Amino acid sequence: MTRIIKTRDAPNLYKIGVRAGLLGNAFGIGLLISFSNTTWTHFGWYLTALSFFHWSEYYTTSVTNSRSLTLESYLLDHSREYKIAAVASWTEFTLEWLVFPGLKQFKWLSILGLILVIGGEVLRKTSMITARSNFNHYVQHIKQHDHQLVTHGVYQYFRHPSYVGWFYWSIGTQIILCNPICLVGYTIVSWRFFRQRIHEEEISLLNFFGEHYVDYQKETGTGLPFIKGYIGRY
Ligand SMILES: C[S@@+](CC[C@H](N)C(=O)[O-])C[C@H]1O[C@@H](n2cnc3c(N)ncnc32)[C@H](O)[C@@H]1O
């Protein structure tokens, strides 16, 4: 079915195109650096992974839940803190590369980070594909008529598989870069973020699905270390 593009969509289409172009360029530059013989190889891995993550958030949403697709689906405009965290990691990498260049050349450590990033990415996108239209980048507080509780696939192992994937993905990016300060910072900040987010999300899920969600909570853990979720009355 052909979708008629209305004139008012044009500025958005332009912004979507700009973001796709920027991410495509970053991905290409990341690959070039990755395969170049320089001391920035691991930064190339990171740049490739980062641009792929944001592009694939948009693309996966467009396939699995096009109803919720917006410019924000790239997760580039998400939060100020996220941007600050990104700039902090680039700054740490550059400063340490200048002062302690040897610190950036632990290939085995960067490979470990890459494994975490790839595993986290696969888990996150598998969760989006499994939950389909029930997955939304924004926590829903009003139940859509067709919102169903998902407990199959990766959701039978973790209650919050996409957050598990994103959590290990973000830690993995700092291990790739061999950034000790940001590794500690990212671990603490993302853990606190997901603890708060899961608390808020589970209050709504208990309101939406009642006893079914309580049973799900009893059978399945959140998947994130030391995060129990919202265990309370609904
Ligand atoms: C960004 S998605 C994250 C989903 C889930 N927390 C995860 O990590 O895979 C947030 C939306 O998913 C919905 N959601 C979370 N768990 C769900 C489940 N098991 N079944 C259906 N919808 C769910 C919430 O209502 C919320 O609007």
Automatic annotation (TrEMBL):
Functional summary from the UniProt entry: Catalyzes the post-translational methylation of isoprenylated C-terminal cysteine residues.
EC class (word): transferase
Signal peptide: none
GO MF, one annotated term: protein C-terminal S-isoprenylcysteine carboxyl O-methyltransferase activity
PANTHER family associated with the record: PROTEIN-S ISOPRENYLCYSTEINE O-METHYLTRANSFERASE, PROTEIN-S-ISOPRENYLCYSTEINE O-METHYLTRANSFERASE
Keywords: Endoplasmic reticulum, Membrane, Methyltransferase, S-adenosyl-L-methionine, Transferase, Transmembrane, Transmembrane helix
Transmembrane segments: 20-37
Reactions the enzyme catalyzes: [protein]-C-terminal S-[(2E,6E)-farnesyl]-L-cysteine + S-adenosyl-L-methionine = [protein]-C-terminal S-[(2E,6E)-farnesyl]-L-cysteine methyl ester + S-adenosyl-L-homocysteine
PROSITE patterns: SAM_ICMT (PS51564)
Protein name: Protein-S-isoprenylcysteine O-methyltransferase
A Pfam entry, by short name: ICMT
